[in-house]
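For reproducibility, we list the full input for the flavin mononucleotide complex.
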Amino acid sequence: MRHDALYTILFSGAVCVVCAVLVSSAAVSLKEDQLRNAALDKQRNVLFAAGLAQLGERLDTGETLRRFERVRPLVIDLATGEPTDIDPATFDQAKAAKDPETSRIAPDNRASVQRLPLHALVYEVLQDGELSMAVVPIEGYGLWSTLYGFLAVGADGNSVRGITYYQHGETPGLGGEVDNPKWKALWPGRKIYGDSGRPAIRVVKGTAGSPEEAPYEVDGLTGATITSNGITAMLDFWLGEEGFQNYLRKFQEGPAQ
Ligand SMILES: Cc1cc2nc3c(=O)[nH]c(=O)nc-3n(C[C@H](O)[C@H](O)[C@H](O)COP(=O)(O)O)c2cc1C
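The corresponding predicted structure, in tokenized form, follows.
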């Protein structure tokens, strides 16, 4: 059989079209599953940050949703810290931060946050009907990537209850040690606000000691000072006046309606 140039071109074109149709229909049909899984992954990370799941524990969908019943997602006004009527189920903070209508340019900050959303999604955790924790989103630049995570804060609005990162591109074994359960276990019990009222918590180079010895300090990540400094910078920003300080002040005063 003779395969001339036209036949070869038409045949490869047909193969390309068939593959493109297959790939794009797979992408479209899997999109909903991907979104659902991303939302579940966030819920799991909120549970890990809040200590409602043990670090390293595997949670299936049913168990994640069962434990999440104690968690109340809430969209707040970032400037005042007050709750809003915005539906947390449909609110997309990353999207809000990009839209000029729902965000503003962030003041200069060491976390390299460019735009601040006007509203933010936080999670309040109930224990025996009482508010016991607030989980706030944190993000900022490390060495290679923006790290996205959650910080859980106790009812006093000042004590760390846990930290997790659910997305980052830092080097495994170096900056990627933010995922190490041993490092995350160093956080509960540390304090956020110093005597000046500003965030004082920071990741130091080397070891810090227990929360009693060093309430505002957490061990640095070995060989990853840049990632460690990035974590200090993002906490300084997101727990400060531009971030969740007003919300945490109100949270500590009593339940939001
Ligand atoms: C391949 C490679 C990957 C690295 N990944 C990271 C990283 O994820 N986070 C980080 O802070 N430093 C990383 N570093 C090291 C930094 O370049 C820098 O040397 C380091 O932050 C200094 O930290 P130290 O003072 O704790 O040694 C990496 C270096 C290399 C060569």
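The two ends are 78 Å apart (CA to CA). The CA atoms of residues 10 and 16 lie 10 Å apart. Both points were considered when choosing residues for closer inspection.
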